[in-house]
């Protein structure tokens, strides 16, 4: 049986993971936009 603490921890970890994915996506978009401007 899973504890409430573990659920909270896994939710927190998933939120961090999704946030990092979003930042990574954003950085790639900005990098692509920059290369378009440079070329």
Model description:
The protein is an all-alpha fold and 39 residues long. The chain has one helix and no strands. The longest helix has 35 residues, at 4-38. The protein has one helix at 4-38. The N and C termini lie far apart (57 Å). It is rod-shaped and about 55 Å long.
Question: What's the topology here?
Answer:
Layout: H1 4-38
Mean pLDDT: 90
The number of strands is: 0
What structural category arises from helix and sheet content?
A: mainly alpha
Main sheet specs: none
Can you write the helix and strand succession as a string? Answer: H
Q: Beta-sheet strand percentage?
A: under 5%
Backbone CA Rg = 17 Å
Task: Based on Cα principal axes, name the global outline.
Answer: rod-shaped
The portion of residues assigned to helices is over 70%
- Span between termini: 57 Å
Count of helical segments? 1
Low-confidence stretches: none
Brief account:
This protein is mainly alpha-helical. Helix content is 90%, strand content 0%.
Q: Which key features would you list for this structure?
A:
mainly alpha; 0% strand; rod-shaped
